[in-house]
Amino acid sequence: MGRITAITISVKIKFYIQNPKRQKRTPSSSNIQIIESSNYQITKMSKIKKTFASYDAAPENTSHIDLKAQYDLFINGKFVKPQSKQYYDTINPATEKKIASIAKGNAKDIDLAVKSAKKAFESWSKTEPKERAKYIYRIARMIQERAREFAVIETMNGGKPIRESRDIDIPLAANHFFYYAGWADKLDYAFPNRKPKPVGVVGQIIPWNFPLLMAAWKLAPALATGNTVVLKPAESTPLTALKLAEIIQESGLPDGVVQIVTGFGDAGAALVNHPLVNKIAFTGSTEVGKYIQKAVAGSNKKVTLELGGKAANIIFDDAPIDQAVEGIVNGIFFNQGHVCCAGSRLFVQENIADKVIQKLKDRMKTLIIGDPMDKNTDIGAINSKEQLLKINNYIKIGIAEGAEMYQTNCALPSQGYFCKPTLFLHTSQSHRIVQEEIFGPVLTIQTFRTIEEVIEKANNIPYGLSAGVWTDKGSKIFNLTTKLRAGVVWANTYNKFDPTSPFGGYQESGFGREGGVHGLLPYVHF
Amino acid sequence: MVLLIQSPTIDQVGVEERVARLMTRSIKKESELEGLKLALNMIDLTTLEGKDTVGKVKQMCYKAQHLADDIAGLPTVAAVCVYVNHVKTAKRALVNSGIKIASVATAFPSGNSSRKVKIEETKMAVANGADEVDMVISRGEFLQGNYNFVFDEIAAIKEACGPARLKVILETGELSTLDNVRKASDIAIHAGADFIKTSTGKIQPAATMPVTLVMLQAIKDHYDATGIMVGMKPAGGISTSKSALNYLVMLYETLGEKWMTNEWFRFGASSLANDIILQLGKEKYGAYYSNNYISKD
């Protein structure tokens, strides 16, 4: 027994000190597997590595896409020319080439749209709930049937990788319609002992980062509760909303229940200020959100705003590190960082910071940046030239502020708007790149020592949309979720969306919830 | 006894999500062909049955050298894997072929025997001509928390291997959690494993992508800390070309190009080779041909 104990002790030491003998373990050249007898050459082996490493192009087929050269406004169940007779070009941000001409709606078009919605409200609000549900289910199924077409168009128009539009945007959009279709005839159960009534004509203004998904988030609960809608897509990404208009037309939804009016900020402003609109739902920048709140002040319009964010993603030293690194990547590089809830401020406990940052850098080297239509692309094109300029400007600010920048040396396509995934190390709360929303693939990294410190820093921001916590300890998660001022807190995951789960912000990230039962509330009054 | 290795915790949901994402990689054209040839070159062609005979082993060794003679430019497999008593037969059959001989040892597949017997068996395998030894860990001791026992045993077998390379089978299907997989991987790596291997093939589930990913990450952490490379061998249940490519994508994106050779990565499989030949044959002839054109040895 004595001898065995001695071995055990020596073994224990080995755990601490690497056995020097192990350095010799790399086999000598005679041991290396070279197959000389076959005609398989070793030079071929290096070719294998090279060819396999870069993956050949695997572009999604676009031949089945049916796009018109020109798109009009969808008002009262018909596609109509804009009053201004003016059109603008919508482009593919990955190629900078024009895809189609889009009607430039203005205040007159908005007025027509709102009046048509007002008229349709009379009958739609009295339509039996289970009948309303049928239309919404039908729209959901039609999106599913044409999912591939929607995915390709979303990627063409917005620059996001086809992997995301195919696996996330489009299925989730269909799911939102399915989910709210189910609520249409159960509203009495959603609000026990209260009688929910639709609010009337709803003006909805949606952003360019998830064009179809945001349209679904807004339209589905509004229709389920018996409202009629005027929806204005973002000017740079109108195509999937217009394709949705085609589906709505085909679905037989009564004329005037949904109008889709494309255009610029003036059309949006006209919608916000229109006297017949009863509610405004807006997703977009905090700046525009503030304008909307001023504009509706004194009116009796209901408002929900889903605005910017600058989320803290917090990694504790007891976190599952490899999965946390994956969560960091997913948190900031999902959709090129064009996500209001992106985990753009990374907090890493100081004792594991070096390890996490090294792993993050290694992981970033495997990210594929380029043609969004390629099924292997992880990071696609920045949505617009303006946005790329804004992001590049913030990168300059970060460098000027003295933060250490890290980018992988991946090649970017010569055409289109692309930005390398970027880290800023050694940042602090006083850096502008830490305080302001960049809305791009740029991550700032700060370290922290204690839970109290990280809670204070995470909350030290005018936003409050989302946060991420990574730890193996359940009690720590519950402690943090009660103290972080954020509408959504993800634990050991990030950027998870589900129609049944409410989503929305605190403070300058807006108010009101979308998704779940909570998502019905803004569209009813009692 | 306490385990002095600090293994990181593993989040199973996160691992599965990463695997799902890796599986969306689309490998086509030249990449696919070269990937398949590489996979073929990484196979340990295996027969581990109670009914193994000299004839069976000889036939498999011939197959290992002549996978499909009608397709030019094919590599051979990396090794054949047999029981200890068939090592001599394999050695004779594979002379001058460049194909390695791997022998299972240490009371494979259960590992339930004395250390003395396990060491003797290992020495016998090497003396008979095995280039590589595939040992199993004592899962019972591991699950009882006797981590140092497991560590000592691996270290002792490594010593008995002499010049032969040691593959350590964790039998992950019996370890139940990914945390255990990671812990066992760390113990094996620190105790001197040249390769870590998922399974014996006798227990279900055998190799899975989540388990393999966790083991690859353990190898990466060790490499980052010490600069020492350790090989990986998923074994059992990988039978299609598509899943072999998925594993190679995972290998490439976790450990990188240095591991993309049969010196550091193996597939323990018996039917994978034929599926790859079927795919490569399709590329050559423009259409799939009948399974009956491919030898079943």
Structure explained in plain terms:
The complex is a heterodimer of chains A (526) and B (297). Chain A is of the alpha/beta class and 526 residues long. Helices cover 40% and strands 16% of the residues of chain A. Chain A has 17 helices and 20 strands. In chain B, helix 8 (178-191) links the parallel strand 5 and strand 6. Chain B has a single domain, classed as TIM Barrel. Chain B has helices at residues 12-23, 29-41, 54-65, 87-93, 115-128, 139-143, 147-161, 178-191, 209-226, 241-255, 272-285; strands spanning 43-46, 79-82, 100-104, 132-136, 165-169, 195-197, 231-233, 267-269. Chain B contains eleven helices and eight strands. Classes of the chains: A alpha/beta (526), B alpha/beta (297). Chains A and B meet through helix 1, helix 2 and helix 12 of A and helix 1, helix 2, helix 7, helix 9 and helix 10 of B.
Distance between the termini of chain B: 47 Å
Integer average pLDDT of chain A:
91
N to C succession of SSEs of chain B: HHEHEHEHEHHEHEHEHEH
Number of helices of chain B: 11
Uncertain segments of chain B are none
Strand order of the largest sheet of chain A: 14-15-16-13-12-17-18
Q: Looking at CATH, which topology of chain B would you report?
A: TIM Barrel
Largest interface: chains, residues each: A-B, 55 and 61 residues
Tally of discrete structural domains of chain A: 3
The level-1 CATH class of chain B: Alpha Beta
Describe the structure concisely.
Chain A is of the alpha/beta class. Chain A has 17 helices and 20 strands. Chain B contains 11 helices and 8 strands.
Topology:
The complex is a heterodimer of chains A (526) and B (297).
Chain A: H1 2-16, H2 42-54, E1 70-71, E2 73-75, E3 78-80, E4 87-92, E5 97-103, H3 107-124, H4 129-145, H5 147-158, H6 162-183, H7 187-190, E6 197-198, E7 201-205, H8 211-224, E8 228-232, H9 239-251, E9 258-260, H10 265-273, E10 279-283, H11 286-296, E11 302-306, E12 312-315, H12 321-333, E13 345-349, H13 353-364, H14 385-400, E14 404-407, E15 422-425, H15 432-435, E16 442-448, H16 451-459, E17 466-470, H17 474-483, E18 488-491, E19 510-511, E20 524-525
Parallel strand pairs in A: 1-5, 7-8, 7-10, 8-9, 10-11, 12-13, 12-17, 13-16, 15-16, 17-18
Antiparallel strand pairs in A: 2-3, 4-5, 6-20, 11-19, 14-15
Helix pairs in contact in A: 3-10, 4-6, 4-9, 5-6, 6-8, 12-13
Chain B: H1 12-23, H2 29-41, E1 43-46, H3 54-65, E2 79-82, H4 87-93, E3 100-104, H5 115-128, E4 132-136, H6 139-143, H7 147-161, E5 165-169, H8 178-191, E6 195-197, H9 209-226, E7 231-233, H10 241-255, E8 267-269, H11 272-285
Helix pairs in contact in B: 1-9, 2-10, 2-11, 5-7, 7-8, 8-9, 9-10
